[in-house]
Amino acid sequence: MLENLAMGFGVALSLTNLAYCLLGVTLGTLIGVLPGVGPLVTIAMLLPITFGLDPTAALIMLAGIYYGAQYGGSTTAILVNLPGETASVVTCIDGYQMARKGRAGPALAISAIGSFFAGCVGTLLIATFGPLLGEWALEFGAAEYFSLMLMGLVSAAVLAHGDMVKSLAMVVLGLLVGLVGADVNSGIDRFTFDVLELTDGIGFTVMAVGIFAVAEIVTNLEHRESREVFSREVGRLMPSREELVASIKPIIRGTGVGAFFGMLPGTGPSISAFSAYMLEKKIARDPDRFGRGAIEGVAAPEASNNAAAQTAFIPTLTLGIPGSATMALVLGALIIQGIQPGPQVMSSNPELFWGLIASMWIGNAMLVALNLPMVGLWVRLLTVPYRWLFPSIVMFCALGNYSLNNSPVDVYLCAGMGVLGYVLAKLECPPAPLILGYVLGPLMEENLRRALIISRGDPAVFVERPISLAFLVATALILAVMILPAMRRAKGEAGD
Amino acid sequence: MKGPISLLRRLGVAVAAFAAISLSAHAYPDKPIRLIVPFPPGGSNDIVGRLVAAKLGEVLGQQIIIENKPGAGGTVGTAAAARAEPDGYTLLVASVAYAYAPALRKLKYDPVKDFVTVGTMGTGPVAMSVNPEVPVASVQELVDYIKANPGKLTYSTAGIGSFQHLSSELFRSMTGADMIHVPFKGGGPAMQSTIAGETNVNIGTLVQQIPQIQAGRLKVLGVGSSERNGALPDVPTIDEAGVPGYLASNWWGILAPTGTPEAIVDQVSEALAKVVESDDIKKALSDQGAAAMKMNPAEFAAFMTAEMEKWAKVVKDAGIEPN
Most CB contacts within 10 A, which of A53, A243, A358, A464? Predict the structure, then answer.
């Protein structure tokens, strides 16, 4: 393997490939910062340019855009509560609160550091266990996905701070929104009201940008010009020693969670970021700090989404199976180059495979070098008066949403979600469980029904398959841990 | 120092003026052309569209901009193209999905009256593969196996109303095969489940299956085209291997909104024919398990009518409810 890696670095360190790597990660950071404009659209636009490139250079650049976007995505999430990338939604929760308390600099810095660490680990994982992990990901069928999602949804209760009933209501509302669109298993349209654009459901970006960013703007505009001005002075840029120490373990755990979800096709960085956040909150000594600017709540999900962005290349490269639309596009670029992505790509095009892996490590180093010095610049953005800032945020939100499907309907929907988000904020309903229900609900339903079709209706399939059973047992344990203390308390009260 | 530059500049202005005059003589195209792809980036429509658009733009002397307008099985983008100004600056990539959409959904456009055919770009067959553990070695053996074990096998597709689904239904209605349908969201996950053995049969796009076939993760039984595919010359067509008359190939063509001046349609059609016949495009398509296909507007129109009838019948026979 060392020999292979050496060859890979030989390929990646050539001047051309370095240049394309830099170009890719720079572009990635940029589109990461711009809300809604994601790697999918960018890669699609750049695809024709890659036709004339050497395949390795093309792949290095496209990959750089993909994982680079995860770095940039946290910037606006932290500064203005606007998720730049879908996976940054979770970063909004605590990152934005940190910024409000004048700690935007440390939040941005820790997210870059966490991303770098996760990126390096992810790359190492691909290099050492790539093919093995790819095989393992194949073990995940419909039953396993269902049990995993069930575990996720049950753990979602952890996301709640404060009113449990409200959190549950939000999860259910999210499930309902997730139902909109054609049902995968029957093909029947649900809640589309004959609007063609709703047939494919309400997009994640529409939801995330609407509920978080647009709603935040409306709320801010209520207070005439007094928007809780963050500190006028820029404040500390780098995290303190305590903050760094507090972040180490969350970054490591987040990386693990992210690496796991990244390998599973169809889950991706968003679910991994949520999971990492929930894990941190669950094991924290004082979970109350979460949602109020806990640095662990930034470190873990940011590490997680970047680890996932790296390991997403495992099924793509070792099996030739794209885990997401963006990965499908990357594979398309390879096919156009005359390279058949698939199990043999490692042996038939070793310089491509190892060159890419080496370039990912270099790209991550470039990203951290690119992003850390930018922290000061970004934080200064907060001193811009809000009346100048918010129109541009709204414009970028609209632009990003439009660019996804080139559809004005998405822009209207996002505005509608903004109104919903505002109402929810007034009712003090937390938005995170809503997003989680929206993401997990449809996946759960799809996989539940698929598993039952394949088992001819026999529900035993969920406990007969070992991985699925393991998730179900874990779910039961989580439930027990959550419910038992409450029951004990109730008993104690009854005994008084 | 100033002299030569201003001379150059004047020369430039003169050249530009001359170019403008020669352009106005045959005005089209004097601004970028928009090519609507009614599917998301990364699919076959998008990749073939982008490949051809780059070359077509060179031949026409104008940039062609791809605009992905996905949604509702391609009908959202198609409806948008139908509403566009018919001036030759909006064109649409149509595929077999255009031909079967009328049978599946309520449309916000008239598939016969709202568009005129310009030309075709290429065609790519489906391939029928099974998980290597399924004990059959040919299409005929699969048919026999299903007859002996009705309802035992499952087949994965890219979703209800996808081309893979219709191709599978065509196979079922022609052979009476009793298999259980497991729809997925997209061709990748569907194929993955067949590779993993969760489902047994996958009628998918050839280009997606080739690497898996070569790696021995899928056992290919036949291809859906009328002739064998250059990438897999040893693999028979499904037609010759046990289901005579079976033909399921995707195709990609270009349409223009009705009302587009005939001269422009012809001009684009001729340019497209040149592109489709070029070695670059032929090679790029065959790398994808597809083949270049050239048709003039009249041929394409006749082909389209036949395809619409064929797939409408498949939808009806399979009992897929229109939405």
Answer: A358
Which positions 374-413 of A are in contact with B (Cβ < 8 Å)? Answer: 405-407
A67/A72 Cα distance (integer angstroms): 9
Give me the residue from B41, B183, B191 closest to A185, CB to CB. Answer: B183
* Inter-chain residue contact A185 with B51, CB threshold 8 Å: no
Give the integer Cα–Cα distance in Å for A459 and A396.
47
pLDDT band at A120 (very low <50, low <70, confident <90, very high): very high
Cα atoms in the 13 Å half-sphere on the side-chain side of B315 = 21
Return the pLDDT at A278.
Answer: 86
Q: Where do we find the tokens 């910024």?
A: A99
At the top level of CATH, the class of B30-124+249-318 is alpha beta
> Which residues is A399 bridged to in the sheet?
none
Does residue A200 contact residue B162 with C-beta atoms inside 8 Å? Answer: no
Give the number of other Cβ atoms within 10 Å of residue A6's Cβ: 12
From chain B, the residues in CB contact with A446 under 8 A are: 185
Q: Give the ranges where A81-192 is alpha helix by DSSP (H).
A: 89-100, 104-138, 142-155, 164-179
A325: closest CA among A116, A86, A19?
A: A86
Q: What is the residue extent of each domain of chain B?
A: 30-124+249-318, 125-223
pLDDT in tens, A124-140: 998 888 878 878 888 88
Q: Looking at the domain covering B125-223, what would its CATH class be?
A: alpha beta
Q: Which residue type is seen at A14?
A: S
Give the domain extent around A296.
2-495
**A283-287 contacts, C-beta under 8 A, 24 or more apart:** A287/A158, A287/A161
> Quick one: tokens of A80?
């203005």
Q: Cβ of B106 and A265 within 8 Å?
A: no
CA distance B193 to chain A (A): 7
Distance CA A307, CA A119 (A): 5
Q: Determine the Cα–Cα distance for residues A241 and B310; give it in Å rounded to an integer.
A: 70
Q: Is B278 on the interface with A (CB under 8 A)?
A: no
| Cross-chain Cβ contact A406/B68 below 8 Å | yes
Same fold, B30-124+249-318 and B125-223: yes
- Which member of B68, B73, B75 has the closest CB to residue A44? B68
Backbone dihedral region for residue B176 (phi beyond 0: left; psi -120 to 50: alpha; all else: beta): left
Cβ neighbors of B204 (< 8 A, separation 6 or more) are: B126, B127, B129, B158, B164, B187, B190, B191
Interface of B with A in 29-68 (CB under 8 A): 40-43, 46-47, 50-51, 53-54, 66-68
Which chain A residues have a beta carbon less than 8 Å from that of B321?
A: 187-188
Number of domains in chain A: 1
Q: What is the 3-state secondary structure (H, E, C) of B128-196?
A: EEECCCCCCCCHHHHHHHHHHCCCCCEEEECCCCCHHHHHHHHHHHHHCCCCEEEECCCHHHHHHHHHH
Beta strands in A132-272 (DSSP E): 181-182, 189-190
* H or E stretch covering B33: strand B33-37
Cβ under 8 Å to A: B residues 86-125 = 106, 108
Which residue of chain A is at minimal alpha-carbon distance from B191?
A: A321
Higher-confidence position of B19 and A14: A14
Quote the ipTM score: 0.81
Partner-chain contact A325 B214, CB within 8 Å: no
A378 vs A373: CA distance, rounded Å: 9
Chains A, B: CB pairs < 8 Å: 151
Q: Which of A196, A322, A345 sits opposite B76 (nearest CB)?
A: A196
